[in-house]
Protein 1
Amino acid sequence: MSRVTLSRYLIEQTRDHGTPADLRFLIEVVARACKAISHAVSKGALGGVLGNAGTDNVQGEAQKKLDVISNEILLEANEWGGHLAAMASEEMDTVYPIPGRFPKGAYMLLFDPLDGSSNIDINGSVGTIFSVLRCPDGVSEPGEADFLQPGVTQVAAGYAMYGPQTILMLTLGSGVKGFTLDRELGSFVLTHDDIRIPEQTQEFAINTSNARHWEAPVQRYVEELLAGQTGPLGKNYNMRWIAAMVGDVHRILTRGGIFMYPWDAREPNKPGKLRLMYEANPMSFIVEQAGGAATNGRQRILDIQPSSLHERVAVFLGSKAEVERITRYHLEADAAR
Ligand code: AFP
């Protein structure tokens, strides 16, 4: 059977589902940029790309050289094509307008150019996460306020994971497809045709070193997971923590599980560590399209009305039954106050 490349899949989506040509072009350009990032990441020490860049991002976090390189690859790949009105990146303070010498388009692209960058120097999995919004009608120079759309308005989302394989996972709003990079062809080839997350699971992902800082509902739930078949959940659980959201989400899309990054008391004024626009919204869109669920412990993440471009959020996502349980524990605790 002939292999279905990303290009063929996207052309068939246009023919069968009316996917706009500009959106198809956008996804192809992002995929090409992810190929370039995969190449840069794989060079490691040989490419002089390890270590810190000597700068901080808007979050006040030290930027890795590859954070900056990946961000530039995505900007340069996307700014000239005429499909975008603007871009926004976790690594940049504010909106990146399309330079005046280039035409503008109907979409806005948001990305975390290299998620999990603390894994770079230890050769751990890292990835690129992206989200596509429509530019509001009549807006030619979108500003920050135009990006503040709830995740439910996304028209596409995806990630590339740079692990033993480079895999691109993509949703256009009708299911989730996975494409593996064939380095000999230089093409992403369809290898995961219909991703479904099992409703039940026996695997959880959380950074348990923060346990003493969690809210009571999270402590209650994780204690039950650790109690296994001796506790109320009546079965044993396994634990994984890749410290790169793309890696944990990819495992969940592959075999189920629940991923948690809750609010914790270390920075009580922040709702969580993960970013709503660049990490939580695209990953929640993908997870829901694969039959899973995603909340901030109290409400569906995709329904959250953003108030700032770099807003953070608590994240509980994955197998529906487990996400519903931990969300119920939060709501019960709130009701008991
Ligand atoms: P970095 O990009 O700074 O490595 O952070 C990655 C991340 O945003 C997300 O991808 C991980 O799930 C999470 O942070 C890991 O956080 P901890 O290092 O606190 O476990």
Protein 2
Amino acid sequence: MSEKRAPLFGFAAIFAVLAVLWIWYPFGTPLLFQSTIFPLTDNAERTQSVYAMVYWITLAIFLGVEGLLIFALFRFRARGDETALPKQTHGHTALEVFWTLATVVLVLVMYVPSFQAIRFHQGPPPTPNPLVIDVTGRQWFWEFYYPEQDLTTANEIVVPQGRTVLFHVTASDVIHSFWFPRLGGKRDAVPGRTQPLWFTPTELGNFHGQCTEYCGSSHALMKMEIVVKPQAEFDTWVAQQKAPGDPAAMAGFGVFAASGCIACHMTMQNDKSVLHMNGPNLMKVATRAKIAAGILDNTPANLKLWISNPQHVKPDAKMNVPAMQCTGPGTPDACCRDVQIGNCLPDATVDQLVAYLSMLK
Ligand code: CUA
């Protein structure tokens, strides 16, 4: 390829990528878990309507400007051995008035719906009797309290299909931000303040959420899930969460207590009286799909990995297992030998804890 032609191929490649994006945007499928442009609730749709309007307007401007530019490049290019400058023009009042007014009109066209959308989002929920959930961001997990049901859970929110959910979002340590990209706009979780966010989930399924304000070393590992169920299944879930645990599980409670886990985690109650313990409430942890704030599937192998060495899974996690001094994978037994601290949880104890937690449903 000649040196002259190389930049042309670069431009052609850029245009090809842009063209694919243009085609993909309106007609594509939601390939990404956490995408804002495939909204699933009233709240997210409203944001998307503004976004789409701005997208199409700016696309039209882009095509118009680039089209005129390309037209001018070809129409007024130097031909043959032409060397004289073309006729020079300075100032054109009509044109200047036009593009000043056109810009003002365009800004207004985009401003009014944006302002209306902000008012819509900041206002009260559109339906009476929303399901209220109090959200507390913590380093690095999410605590959820359902006042109507007097129910505490962590990292996984279960809601009924079709009922507006009103979140009261706060934090207990540093600033976090609560965000389910396909369901609604972000709301900062600020210590000492409570901010509302509502949306009405209409589609069944599991949707991913993410802390979106840098909050320390494991910020990127502060995830959550929302599970939208039909009303009857939601009622069953609430009843299960409120039910006393399996008496057979009690056998494992002694190990849980003796290992120090009860200093931060509650496994016997999940009502208001046990809100804001240091760690997530674990009373019904076996009913959750994920552990460690949405980063591991809730399987016995992953529970063992997590309890054995939390620091390996989530740097700076507050879970103070002695094995935290280990930096690599492996059982605490092997880890203890490596770092010679000698007082971490023996492998057999971890197995007993995993068995106990797996029964909490
Ligand atoms: Cu919590 Cu970032």
Protein 3
Amino acid sequence: MNNTFRIGVLGSGKGSNFVAIADAVIAGQIPAEIAVVLSDVEAAGILAHARDRKIPAQFVPPGKFRTKLDEEAERAFVAALQQAQIDLVVLAGFMRVLKGDFLRAFEGRIVNIHPSLLPSFPGLEAWKQALDHGVKVTGCTVHFVDAGVDAGAIIGQQTVPVLDNDTPENLHQRIHAAEHDLYPKCVAALARREISVAGRRVLWKKA
Ligand code: GRF
């Protein structure tokens, strides 16, 4: 029990990536336990999905800012994750930028998924940025989180073709489907401690 790899998930939205990861844990594909799910949005679907699965789920008020946590909120998030003794923080649609004290508390142990092939199209509505730019291939990226926005070392990527008749909505939908495939695989490799980092390069040890 004590050496079970413990995951804390943060999300602000519907939580479909959380569901993909939680289902992979239940199916035995990720050797880990999801110890806690936290959200800055009280009505977020991710909290309901966690409670459906009997996973501790908590709304933590984010404070006075719109795109980051205020100091008190940051302390509350860090405390809840430390109390749950988590080994890895998984961001799954968490819509706030994490800053200094949070990053220091979990240095090298925070991962995120972004809906483009980084470093192309960081920031909001990356699928729309890709469509507007006219790229023929986009996708999704799982990466470590550092002080930059969508800038940390890349763990895994999956491509999605852009089709001539794509709308932002259906391209986003196909990227989402790719995310549900990629994110559990990356989290599983992290839980198995098969991932090592050399500068910006993330290496996957063969199982
Ligand atoms: C995903 O598209 C992810 O790339 C982005 O936020 C979205 C979260 O979706 N970071 P969901 O809440 O997991 O459905």
